[in-house]
Amino acid sequence: QVQLVESGGGLVQPGGSLRLSCAASGFTFSNYRMGWFRQAPGKEREFVAAISGTTYGTDYTESVKGRFTISRDNAKNTAYLQMTSLKPEDTAVYYCAAREGMLPYSRSDREFDSWGQGTQVTVST
Asked: Could you give the count of Cα atoms lying within 13 Å of 13 in the half-sphere of its Cβ?
């Protein structure tokens, strides 16, 4: 069955870096657009970044542009989110998600059907 498993979260000081990984199984990974979302305490889940299945086009929310990089390795069925220059406001549970790549592009979490369990990222002194 479809499964997405995030890893790599943790506690980091402001200005630090983390790389999140999302290991996928149970579907043809290259046929799906992968996205990263996050949810901070008391806030709605928000879009962070997405990458297309085979052409590797990317999209980022404005607040992370220049700091975060989304990538994927289709041979390993894994998506990544490299986060640098982390700020306290980046603190959240980060989720990876998948959407069939031939469907219209969307940043909406409601348009992604498969989700991982989330990994906590905490940025603090």
From this structure: 1
Q: Residue 97 and residue 28: Cα distance in Å, rounded?
A: 14
Helix (H) or strand (E) holding 39: strand 32-39
Q: Three-class SS of residue 90? A: helix
Do residues 3 and 113 make contact, with C-beta atoms less than 8 angstroms apart?
no
Residues 6+ apart with CB under 8 A from 29: 53, 72, 74, 77
* Mean pLDDT of the residues in the chain: 96
CB contact at 8 A, 10 and 122: yes
pLDDT value at residue 102: 87
Distance (Å, rounded) from C-alpha 37 to C-alpha 73?
A: 19
pLDDT digits (tens, 9 = 90+) for 36-77: 999 999 999 999 999 999 999 999 999 999 999 999 999 999
